[in-house]
Amino acid sequence: KKEEIEVYCVGWSDWFSIAQCRIDLIKIDIEGGEFELIPAMKDYLHSARPTVYLSLHAAFIGEGEKHRKLAEIAEVMSAYRHCYDETGQPVTMKALADTSRDQFRSFLFTD
User: Fold this and answer.
1) In terms of pTM, does the model score above 0.70?
2) N or C, which terminus of the chain has less Cβ within 10 Å?
3) Sheet holding 105-110, edge to edge
4) Nearest C-alpha neighbor of 58 from the set 40, 37, 33
């Protein structure tokens, strides 16, 4: 017999309204969930501009949606002045989208 465990979930906007704290660094490594989370965080990211370490997992997205979802991530994160890859090299938003289509990548966004 399988044991059931009840898990409570809170969306980003609900959590942030409850927590009401200053966030300096956000690490996002949620196996494809970033494509839902980042657009939901857009207003917060654009106003507060915390440093973001973001892992992209486009391999978990259907081929028909990859281009649109990566473009949406690039649009939201383009509010940041600097983007660096795993090796510390600067990356453009176009390169972020192009190089993340078929491999897992991580990026650091700062102002």
Assistant:
1) yes
2) N
3) 25-28, 51-56, 105-110, 82-84
4) 33
